[in-house]
Amino acid sequence: MFIINQEIVELTSEKLRQHFGEAILTEEVEMDMPVYTVKKEIIVDLLRFLFDDEILRYRFLTTMCGIHYPDNKQQFGVIYHLHSLENNQRIRIKTFTTIEDITIPSATAVFAAANWMEREAYDFYGIQFPGHPNLKRILNVEDMDYFPMRKEYPLEDGTRQDKNDDFFGR
Amino acid sequence: MDSNNNIKIVDIPEGYSGNGFFATRMDKAVGLARMNSLWPLPFATSCCGIEFMATMAPHYDLARFGMERLSFSPRQSDLLMVMGTIAKKMGPILQEVYVQMAEPRWVIAVGACAASGGIFDTYSVLQGIDRVIPVDVYVPGCPPRPEQIINGILKIQELAHYESLRRRNKPEYKELLATYGIE
Amino acid sequence: MKEDIQKNIDPGDVAGSEIHEFVTLNVGPTHPATHGVFQNVMTMDGEYIVDTEQTIGYIHRAFEKIAERRAYYQILPLTDRMNYCSSPLNNTGYLMAVEKLLGLEIPKRVQYMRIIIMELARIADHNVCNSVIGVDTGALTVFTYMFQDREKIYEIWEQVCGSRLTTSIGRIGGFERNWNEKTWTLLRKFVKEYPKSLKEFENLLMRNRIFLDRTVDVGAISAEKALNYGFTGPNLRATGVDYDVRVTSPYCSYEEFDFIVPVGTTGDTHDRFMVREEEMWQSLSIINQAIAKLDAMDDKETFNADSKAYVMPAKEKVYNDMEALIWHFKQVMGEIDPPKGEIYHAIEAGNGELGFYIVSDGGRSPYRCHFRRPCFIYYQAYPEMIKGNLLSDAIITLSSMNVIAGELDA
Questions:
Q1: Which end of chain B has the lower number of beta carbons within 10 A, N or C?
Q2: How far is CA A130 from CA A101, A138, C229, C299, in A?
Q3: Looking at the structure, do residues C27 and C82 belong to the same domain, yes or no?
Q4: Looking at the domain assignment, is residue B124 inside a domain?
Q5: A127 contacts A76 by C-beta, under 8 angstroms
Q6: Are the CB atoms for C215 and C224 separated by under 8 Å?
Q7: pTM of the predicted model, to two decimals?
């Protein structure tokens, strides 16, 4: 279990509410990590704010991934895990977007590590990141025409003829 | 204690020998030379590659079967050892490497992923390398133990030993290559 | 005449000369020096590298998508195949993440046993990396020496779980069976004999003039850049930042063990080599402490947590006891719902912080299972590390970063 540094977490919540007001939609503590759901328009400013703040110092982007909830109105989400090494505190930031306007501002200006992580999210879910220097597919074949991790696509290879689906219950 | 009794020496083929000479059929001599000095091309992509490294290491020592000299250039190798998962992105490259090899060439598919896609029945993994190149020996396992890999190599040596010198020009072989789109 | 002589370029002066001739070199996916399949298309000015364009994904096996279709205990063999040089680290990390989600309490004995397995995996991983740095500088013999020790570690893992390389060691809640006598014999023999062979390896390479010339000041990166690029593990510690997940957020009773975290200064290849070398000594010390703690415990029988809902009962009980049969059925058929929620758990793997972000919707398989793979994140910095260096330096930088293709693409 990660130990929550209560002081720093309270300071983070206070500063974020002060600075960004209503753009912070929810804040809660999920098991051992504070989680903030924010509006996507301010995400880069928020990351920059947390990076620059002298006390909070969230200067390490642990990981970033996409997620797809087909039943929600805001189907696609991007989840950032930040880590403040000096205060030893981790937080999770989530933003969501609809399928019609599937863009989230790119965080590469703040963290160089976000470069490939955003390419992976684009490759898997089709989320566009305006401001990214080189947004093209990274893990799949270049000319693939669909986004495989979305929930509507199957796992298996579509061109396989020799497997009998009746036995495998797909 | 005489230790020389336990060394296995390659037997000479059938032939006619006399004082200072030995005569046998050409293909027997060539087969013997080929089987004991194959130059492998290790096409190691994932976990099976590490088991191959363990097979080359002194404990299991592949060099005692004649595979001392690994070649990373396809033009100088005889045996293409495909070890590990081949993704669809890698398929054309594998075919390119196979085409660059000169005859006689053999292919051994080491591991479940190379033989049939393995546990990865997904959209991005090639379900067996025999979808892009013809394969001679399959070694199952995930990863196969070094002893199994050596067993596969011995089968390749058997193929190299008894292969007729004119097999490569036969029409069935050319037809097989044509199904893969290789000239 | 004099102008003709001046036009002859001195081979040692190409970088400073005004004549540039750019060549594109494809250090392609099949190359003996790239240990794994990834491609670097390098633009070169003579022997010096101007720029690199990387392509990965040649072994993309869609782990995250497979994980959404498998039960929690079925994802374990997938995690083996990420960093396949040290599978037990990935396995235990994943199991600890799932146990965190389920809220299981793991007994001390199991935690110490897990620490022994994890530190053996760390020794095995650093073994391969350091000997491969040796191979890339031309010292092929060290590889043959170090792989003997890897065989000894394989024998120990084989006694514990049955498999050498892709171990799938452990189950949710602990291990599948208690360790037998042979495991303990092999383990004690290993810790007695390993210091001698590690010393032999060090004598071959550590003060070797040629090796030092090849690796000092090659592929350096500064600490701020490394942190911005998301470096973790030995690559980050070589730059001077002492971030080790075992120390900052201890898991599995690491806080009870006494070890130091080696740190470098310049972040070059030599520092990475030395950090890994010292970590092997530290891992050996941790294993010795764990064996001492286990010998001091009275309990020699526990090998998994006491939870009927998530830990599979022993096969003898399943065939003879009604209750065990029912629990076994419930677990395999997915009738037991894990709690809803999401967790992130990180461990210190061979290459850095290996993280597991699991989102559970109460079903048999996770809704989303994301692996934070250290190789994928720090390999982005490779073009910057080799800019302006020679091609041979670039090859050594690549092997010292310990980029494993399975972890890169997942």
A1: N
A2: 12, 17, 20, 59
A3: no
A4: yes
A5: yes
A6: no
A7: 0.92
d(CA B180, CA B175): 9
Could you tell me what percent of chain C has a pLDDT over 70?
Answer: 95
Domain A6-147: assigned CATH number: 3.30.460.80
CA C381, C385, C391, C395 torsion-angle sign: negative
Q: Which chains touch B (3 or more CB pairs under 8 A)?
A: A, C
DSSP state of C338: P
Number of domains in chain B: 1
What distance in Å separates the CA atoms of residue C378 and residue C391, rounded to the nearest whole number?
Answer: 20
**Mean of pLDDT values over C218-242:** 92
Q: Say if residue C303 is in the same domain as residue C369.
A: yes
Report CA C150 to chain centroid distance, whole Å.
Answer: 14
Mutate to test the interface with A, among C74, C82, C227, C367 (most CBs of A within 10 A): C227
* Cα(C283)–Cα(C292) distance, integer angstroms: 14
Q: Any idea which of A34-48, C134-148, C233-247 has the lowest mean pLDDT? A: C134-148
The length of chain B is 183
- Per the CB < 8 A criterion, the answer to whether C261 and C244 are in contact is yes
The two three-digit tokens of residue C360, written as one number: 């559970």
- Please tell me the distance from the alpha carbon of residue A45 to that of residue B31, in angstroms, as a whole number: 71
**pLDDT top residue among C202 and B6:** C202
Statement to judge: residues C34 and C73 lie in one domain: no
On whether both C307 and C391 belong to a single domain, the answer is yes
Helices (H), C21-138: 63-67, 76-80, 87-102, 108-137
- Note whether C227 contacts A: Cβ–Cβ < 8 A: yes
Residue A163 has pLDDT above 90, yes or no: no
Is the CB of C58 inside 8 Å of chain B's CB atoms? yes
- Could you tell me if residue B163 is inside a domain? yes
Cβ contacts (< 8 Å) between C346 and chain A: which residues? 62
Range of the domain at B44: 30-177
Does C250 contact chain B (CB < 8 Å)? no
| Residue C307 and residue C187 share a domain | yes
C128 and C259 both lie in a single domain: yes
- On whether both C319 and C192 belong to a single domain, the answer is yes
Contacts of A137 in chain C (CB under 8 A): 57
DSSP conformation class of A25: E
Contact B117, B124 (CB under 8 A): no
Of the three residues C10, C29, C55, the one that is the final residue of a domain is: C55
Judged by CB atoms closer than 8 Å, whether chains meet at A113 and C343 is answered as no
